[in-house]
Amino acid sequence: MPEKLYHISGFPEWIQADWEKLYDQAKSYERAIRTLLESEVPERDFYSERDVLPILFFIRHYMEIILKSLLLEQG
Predict the structure, then answer these.
(1) What whole-number distance in Å separates Cα of residue 12 and Cα of residue 60?
(2) What is the maximum alpha-carbon separation in the chain?
(3) Which residues pair with 6 in a beta bridge?
(4) Which stretches within 5-48 are classed as H helix?
(5) CB 36, CB 42: distance < 8 Å
(6) Is 12 helix (H, G, I), strand (E, B) or coil?
(7) What does DSSP assign to residue 4?
(8) In whole angstroms, how large is the CA radius of gyration of the chain?
(9) Residues 40, 69: Cα–Cα separation, whole Å
(10) CA 25 – CA 63 distance, rounded (Å)
(11) Would you say the C-alpha torsion 17, 2, 60, 70 has a positive or negative sign?
């Protein structure tokens, strides 16, 4: 994999196509989702509604961006 050198726009310089830019953004959401899910909830064994709603928003947005990148890739 190429080195991840970033331009001012924030994308690695090896990313050229629009679908690759969307896919790169989606991977950032995926990392955020994993971070939120893997973080321990103090003194509880469950997620409250306040904990779940932001996670569900990130999941929905991640799926939306992935679908858009797939549609752009396919033309």
Answers:
(1) 25
(2) 49
(3) 12
(4) 18-38
(5) no
(6) strand
(7) -
(8) 16
(9) 32
(10) 11
(11) positive
pLDDT higher at 63 or 53: 63
Token pair of 69 as six digits: 């990148």
Confidence of residue 1 (pLDDT cuts 50, 70, 90): very low
Q: Which two tokens stand for residue 2?
A: 């190429």
Which one-letter amino acid corresponds to residue 32? A
Record the tokens describing residue 71, joined without a space: 């549609």
In this structure, what DSSP letter does residue 54 have?
H
Structure tokens at 57: 């928003």
The residue written with tokens 């899910």 in the block is 37
Q: For the chain, how many residues are written?
A: 75
Distance CA 37, CA 19 (A): 27
Does the global pTM surpass 0.90? Answer: no
Higher pLDDT, residue 10 or 52: 52
